[in-house]
C-alpha cells in the first residue's frame, strides 16, 4: 500500500466550501488562481442539463510549495495519486446533495486515456487500483473511470493538495471533531483528548491523515473520519453565517482556489457562480455522505471491489436523481451489518441466545430478546433526569436489564457503544430509540456490553428527532448528525 498521507476530507471540504462560497462575489482574482485541464480523458461526454456531478479528489503529491514537508512519494513522477475520491451529486431541483466516497484501494477497470499535454495514449487496464487512474494522463482519467463503472456523466472535477486542508481549516477558524478515547499517534503527529476538540492547520491535517489512531487503520475508518469532518464543517459554515459574510467568503475562496486544479469549464467565472447558487439553500438534513458498497477482492485481501448488487442500486439512485435522504425519522442509516437480518426489531427477536464475548461479528448474527440485553444508560447531555427517563423507556420496551450509570462529560451526539459479540444487540437498542446506525460504535473496552451515551442531540422524547437518515444498507451519515471517531 502507498505510504502517502491519508488526509481524508481535504478535498471534499474544499469543494463544499468553494461551491458555497463564491456565488455573488467579485471573483476575477479567484479565476486567476485556478489551474485547469480537460474534464474527461476517455471517450465519454458530460451532460449539460439536470443534476450536477462533481468529482472531488485529493492528491498525495509532494510537488508544490509546502507539500514537500510531508515526505517523498515512492511511485510515479511525483504528481501523486488521488487517495481521496468523492462524488458530489447536486440534484436537479437543488434540494438534495449526495456525497459518495470511493476507497483508494478499490480495484476497477481503467479505460483508455489520452494525456492532453503529450498526446500519449494509455492502454486500458484491468483490475487496477482506482487511485492510480490519474497517473494515466491526469485527473480526467479518473473521471473517465468513474463514469464507466457508475454509469454517470461527471460534469466537473476539483483536485486539491495537502496545503488545502491546513489553509482551509485556518480560514474557517477550526473544525470541531470528536474522538471516543485519547489519541496519541506519532506517525501523523495527532494528539487529542477524549471528547470534542477543535482542530485547524497542521492539527486538522493530522486528524485526517491519521491511520493508526482509528479503527483498523483501513479505508472504512479513514472515510468515517472524512465524513465526520465534512459534516462538522458544513454545520459550522451554515450556523455561523459564513455564507452571508462576503469578506469571509472571499478569504476562504481565495485560499482554496489557490490550491485547486479544476476542469476547464469550472475555471470559468460564470460556471463557478452558477454552482454556488445550486448549493445555497440545501438543508443540512438533505446532505448525505455514504461510502460506495464494497467487498474484499478475493485475489488480494488487502484490496476491495464493488459489491455489484448494492453498488448498482446506489448508482441507479443517482442516475435517477433520487435523494439518499430518508425523511422517515424512524429509518436508520444501517451499516453493511445492519442491513442483514440481525438488525430486526427487538420485539421480533424470539428464542435467541446471548453471545459469548469472544464471538466474531459473523458468529453473532443472532436475534436478541430485549430482556437478554444489559444496557447501561449514561447521561452526556447535561439534562437532569435524562438517563432515568430513557431507562424507563427501555424497560417499558422489554429491556428489563437497562440500568442507569454515572454521567460523563457532555457530548454533542448520542452514541450506542458495544463490546465484542454485542453489535447486533447494540443495533437493536439504537433502532428502538431511533438512533442512526452511524452512531453505533465498537468499544475498545472488552468489558463493555451495550452502553447508551445520551448526547445533546437527544435531550427529550422517547426517540431521536432527526429530519432524515441514510438508507438502510449504506454506511454513512447526514450533515445534521454529530458522530465521534473510535
TrEMBL record:
<feature type="compositionally biased region" description="Polar residues">
    <location>
        <begin position="475"/>
        <end position="486"/>
    </location>
</feature>
<feature type="domain" description="Cell envelope-related transcriptional attenuator">
    <location>
        <begin position="81"/>
        <end position="238"/>
    </location>
</feature>
<feature type="domain" description="LytR/CpsA/Psr regulator C-terminal">
    <location>
        <begin position="372"/>
        <end position="458"/>
    </location>
</feature>
<keyword id="KW-0472">Membrane</keyword>
<feature type="region of interest" description="Disordered">
    <location>
        <begin position="324"/>
        <end position="361"/>
    </location>
</feature>
<feature type="transmembrane region" description="Helical">
    <location>
        <begin position="7"/>
        <end position="28"/>
    </location>
</feature>
<keyword id="KW-0812">Transmembrane</keyword>
<dbReference type="Pfam" id="PF03816">
    <property type="entry name" value="LytR_cpsA_psr"/>
</dbReference>
<keyword id="KW-1133">Transmembrane helix</keyword>
<feature type="region of interest" description="Disordered">
    <location>
        <begin position="460"/>
        <end position="486"/>
    </location>
</feature>
<dbReference type="Pfam" id="PF13399">
    <property type="entry name" value="LytR_C"/>
</dbReference>
<dbReference type="InterPro" id="IPR027381">
    <property type="entry name" value="LytR/CpsA/Psr_C"/>
</dbReference>
<dbReference type="InterPro" id="IPR050922">
    <property type="entry name" value="LytR/CpsA/Psr_CW_biosynth"/>
</dbReference>
<dbReference type="InterPro" id="IPR004474">
    <property type="entry name" value="LytR_CpsA_psr"/>
</dbReference>
<comment type="similarity">
    <text>Belongs to the LytR/CpsA/Psr (LCP) family.</text>
</comment>
<feature type="compositionally biased region" description="Low complexity">
    <location>
        <begin position="337"/>
        <end position="350"/>
    </location>
</feature>
<protein>
    <submittedName>
        <fullName>LytR family transcriptional regulator</fullName>
    </submittedName>
</protein>
Amino acid at each position: 500500500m502507498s505510504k502517502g498521507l491519508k488526509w481524508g476530507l481535504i478535498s471534499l471540504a474544499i469543494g463544499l466550501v468553494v461551491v458555497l462560497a463564491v456565488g455573488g462575489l467579485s471573483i476575477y482574482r479567484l479565476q486567476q488562481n485556478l489551474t485547469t485541464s480537460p474534464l474527461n480523458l476517455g471517450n465519454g461526454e458530460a451532460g449539460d442539463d439536470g443534476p450536477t456531478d462533481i468529482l472531488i479528489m485529493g492528491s498525495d503529491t509532494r510537488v508544490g510549495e509546502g507539500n514537500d514537508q510531508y515526505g517523498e512519494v515512492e511511485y510515479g513522477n511525483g504528481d501523486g495519486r488521488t487517495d481521496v475520491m468523492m462524488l458530489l451529486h447536486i440534484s436537479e431541483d437543488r434540494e438534495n446533495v449526495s456525497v459518495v466516497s470511493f476507497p483508494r484501494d478499490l480495484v476497477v477497470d481503467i479505460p483508455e486515456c489520452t494525456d492532453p499535454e503529450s498526446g500519449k495514449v494509455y492502454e486500458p487496464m484491468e483490475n487496477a487500483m482506482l487511485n492510480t487512474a490519474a497517473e494515466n494522463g491526469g485527473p480526467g482519467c479518473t473521471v473517465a473511470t468513474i463514469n464507466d463503472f457508475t454509469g454517470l456523466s461527471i460534469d466537473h472535477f476539483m483536485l486539491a493538495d495537502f496545503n488545502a486542508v491546513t489553509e482551509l481549516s485556518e480560514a474557517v477558524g477550526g473544525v470541531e471533531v470528536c474522538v471516543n478515547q485519547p489519541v496519541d499517534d506519532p506517525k501523523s503527529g495527532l494528539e487529542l483528548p477524549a471528547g470534542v476538540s477543535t482542530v485547524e492547520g497542521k492539527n486538522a491535517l493530522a486528524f485526517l491523515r491519521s491511520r493508526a489512531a482509528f479503527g483498523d487503520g483501513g479505508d472504512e475508518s479513514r472515510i468515517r473520519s472524512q465524513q465526520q469532518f465534512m459534516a462538522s464543517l458544513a454545520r459550522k459554515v451554515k450556523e455561523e453565517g459564513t455564507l452571508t459574510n462576503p469578506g469571509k467568503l472571499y478569504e476562504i475562496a481565495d485560499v482554496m482556489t489557490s490550491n485547486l486544479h479544476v476542469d476547464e469549464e469550472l475555471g470559468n467565472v460564470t460556471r463557478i457562480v452558477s454552482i454556488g447558487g445550486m448549493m445555497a439553500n440545501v438543508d443540512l438534513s438533505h446532505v448525505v455522505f455514504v461510502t460506495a458498497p464494497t467487498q474484499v477482492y478475493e485475489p488480494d485481501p488487502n484490496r476491495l471491489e464493488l459489491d455489484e448488487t448494492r453498488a448498482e442500486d446506489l448508482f441507479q439512485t443517482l442516475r435517477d436523481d433520487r435523494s439518499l435522504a430518508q425523511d422517515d425519522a424512524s429509518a436508520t442509516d444501517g451499516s453493511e451489518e445492519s442491513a442483514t437480518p440481525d438488525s430486526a426489531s427487538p420485539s421480533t427477536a424470539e428464542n435467541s441466545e446471548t453471545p459469548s464475548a469472544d464471538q466474531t461479528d459473523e458468529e453473532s448474527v443472532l436475534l436478541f430478546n430485549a430482556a437478554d440485553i444489559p444496557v447501561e444508560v449514561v447521561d452526556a447531555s447535561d439534562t437532569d433526569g435524562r438517563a432515568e427517563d430513557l431507562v424507563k423507556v427501555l424497560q417499558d420496551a422489554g429491556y428489563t436489564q437497562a440500568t442507569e450509570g454515572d454521567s460523563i462529560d457532555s457530548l454533542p451526539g448520542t452514541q450506542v457503544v458495544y463490546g465484542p459479540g454485542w453489535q447486533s444487540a447494540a443495533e437493536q437498542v439504537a433502532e428502538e430509540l431511533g438512533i442512526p446506525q452511524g452512531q453505533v460504535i465498537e468499544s475498545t473496552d472488552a468489558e463493555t456490553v451495550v452502553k447508551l451515551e445520551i448526547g445533546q442531540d437527544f435531550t427529550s422524547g422517547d426517540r431521536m428527532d432527526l429530519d432524515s437518515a441514510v438508507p438502510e444498507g449504506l454506511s454513512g451519515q447526514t450533515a445534521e448528525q454529530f458522530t465521534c471517531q473510535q
